[in-house]
């Protein structure tokens, strides 16, 4: 959506119709689409523990891998792509907080933190 002087601009009108002059500020608002309701699939705890062990080992044994993961999570565009590709993630403030904090991410990636 485009906003000028507190009004939403309609697609069928020209900028002249709204009296927009060169140098005027028009704000762009990104639409957020509601996520479809999806029932979460049951988690295979054994497979989850195995995956978290691999992630944890890679994060702690390879500085290059760790730096690449944290660089990706620190990039807003990359994080937005992860959020869009993961159903339910945008409505989970805890998971979003973990992805945005390196220390929390490292703690939560520890397989010993899983409830097995």
From TrEMBL:
Designated name of the protein: Ubiquitin-like 7
GO CC, alphabetical: cytosol
The organism's taxonomic lineage, starting at the top: Eukaryota, Metazoa, Chordata, Craniata, Vertebrata
Ubiquitin-like domain mapped to chain residues: 1-31
An annotated Gene Ontology molecular function: polyubiquitin modification-dependent protein binding
Transmembrane segments: none
Species name: Buceros rhinoceros silvestris
Coiled coil: none
GO BP annotations, alphabetical order: ubiquitin-dependent protein catabolic process
């Amino acid at each position: 959506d485009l906003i000028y002087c507190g009004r939403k601009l309609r697609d069928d009108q020209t900028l002249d119709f709204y009296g927009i002059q060169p140098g005027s500020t028009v704000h762009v608002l990104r639409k957020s689409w509601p996520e479809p309701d999806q029932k979460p699939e049951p988690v295979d705890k054994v497979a989850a523990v195995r995956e978290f062990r691999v992630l944890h080992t890679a994060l702690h044994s390879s500085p290059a891998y760790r730096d690449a993961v944290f660089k990706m999570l620190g990039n807003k565009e990359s994080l937005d792509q992860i959020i869009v590709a993961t159903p339910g993630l945008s409505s989970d403030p805890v998971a979003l907080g973990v992805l945005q904090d390196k220390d929390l991410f490292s703690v939560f990636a520890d397989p010993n933190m899983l409830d097995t």
